[in-house]
């Protein structure tokens, strides 16, 4: 019923969303990951679907139900996420990267569980940098309209703006953590070439709808 009252601002538009953390294995039972519940990304996928979009959601490991009417692809690592996203990106008009992608992965993944040897010795991990999914998509010849997220612990506007320019994307959405991680509420700062606009503290579901409305307007008036 709710769909009846939601303006179809993105009718027929294809939207690709990444959400959640990625998980980078150390061995078959261990790994490193980022703090991300996936709530914001899932809310954005749902809001886009309600606005009439055809939504594909590429999700890292999260404990959330699939938003109604959304096509969901589950992945684990950053490399898996890139492999899922890249072939889909050119067919989408919008790419919204909300995922908290692990910046580094263990350089090797042990085939068997690493065992304690009883001496108290600790393993040393070497890391490799993960691919930047958002920057890779933004650099494609048929790049969709790319929206990035920037979770920062300080100097939100400065860091987010620098990130927007570094990744070559038109719009970045900043939020301050870790107080908001896993919560149902958030506050967002939208930063583009023109300047910044704040979406004040509200439930993530409401912010998602406001952001989708904002993106729909941008598509109309590029
Ligand atoms: N992102 C991505 N792939 C990565 C890292 C980040 O797609 N390997 C995306 C995120 O989904 C987000 C944006 O880039 O939309 C910014 O992520 P963030 O971690 O804040 O930026 P980094 O460039 O990784 O910088 P840092 O973590 O050092 O602040
Ligand atoms: Ca990062």
TrEMBL record:
Catalytic activity as recorded in UniProt: (R)-4'-phosphopantothenate + L-cysteine + CTP = N-[(R)-4-phosphopantothenoyl]-L-cysteine + CMP + diphosphate + H(+); N-[(R)-4-phosphopantothenoyl]-L-cysteine + H(+) = (R)-4'-phosphopantetheine + CO2
The enzyme's E.C. designation: 4.1.1.36, 6.3.2.5
Listed pathway(s): Cofactor biosynthesis; coenzyme A biosynthesis; CoA from (R)-pantothenate: step 3/5; Cofactor biosynthesis; coenzyme A biosynthesis; CoA from (R)-pantothenate: step 2/5
Source taxon at top rank: Bacteria
Gene Ontology molecular functions: FMN binding; metal ion binding; phosphopantothenate--cysteine ligase activity; phosphopantothenoylcysteine decarboxylase activity
Swiss-Prot/TrEMBL cofactor(s): FMN; Mg(2+)
Name of protein: Coenzyme A biosynthesis bifunctional protein CoaBC
Species this protein is from: Inhella crocodyli
Keyword field: Decarboxylase, Flavoprotein, FMN, Ligase, Lyase, Magnesium, Metal-binding, Multifunctional enzyme
One BP annotation, GO: pantothenate catabolic process
Key word Flavoprotein present: yes
Cofactor binding comment, as recorded: Binds 1 FMN per subunit.
Annotated ranges, domain DNA/pantothenate metabolism flavoprotein C-terminal: 10-216
Coiled-coil intervals: none
Assigned protein family: In the C-terminal section; belongs to the PPC synthetase family. In the N-terminal section; belongs to the HFCD (homo-oligomeric flavin containing Cys decarboxylase) superfamily.
Cytoplasm listed as a keyword: no
Described function: Catalyzes two sequential steps in the biosynthesis of coenzyme A. In the first step cysteine is conjugated to 4'-phosphopantothenate to form 4-phosphopantothenoylcysteine. In the second step the latter compound is decarboxylated to form 4'-phosphopantotheine.
Encoding gene per record: coaBC
Any one GO cellular component localisation term in the record: phosphopantothenoylcysteine decarboxylase complex
Positions of the UniProt region annotated as Phosphopantothenate--cysteine ligase: 15-222
Residues of the full protein shown: 181 to 402 of 402
Positions annotated to bind CTP: 103, 113, 131-134, 149, 163, 167
């Amino acid at each position: 019923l709710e769909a009846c009252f939601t303006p179809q601002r993105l009718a027929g538009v294809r939207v690709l969303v990444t959400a959640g953390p990625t998980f980078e294995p150390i061995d078959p039972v261990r790994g490193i990951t980022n703090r991300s519940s996936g709530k914001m990304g899932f809310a954005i996928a749902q809001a886009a679907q309600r606005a009439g979009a055809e939504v594909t959601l590429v999700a890292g490991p999260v404990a959330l139900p699939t938003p109604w009417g959304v096509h969901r692809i589950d992945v684990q690592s950053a490399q898996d996420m890139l492999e899922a996203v890249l072939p889909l990106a050119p067919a989408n008009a919008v790419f919204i990267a909300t995922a908290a992608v692990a910046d580094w992965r263990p350089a090797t993944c042990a085939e068997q569980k690493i065992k304690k040897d009883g001496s108290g010795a600790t393993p040393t991990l070497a890391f490799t940098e993960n691919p930047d999914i958002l920057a890779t998509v933004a650099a494609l010849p048929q790049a969709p309209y790319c929206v990035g997220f920037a979770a920062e612990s300080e100097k939100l506007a400065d860091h987010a703006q620098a990130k927007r320019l570094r990744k070559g994307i038109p719009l970045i959405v900043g939020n301050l953590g870790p107080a908001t991680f896993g919560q149902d509420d958030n506050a967002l700062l939208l930063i583009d070439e023109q300047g910044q606009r704040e979406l004040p503290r509200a439930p993530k579901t409401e912010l998602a709808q406001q952001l989708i409305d904002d993106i729909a307007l941008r598509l109309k008036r590029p």
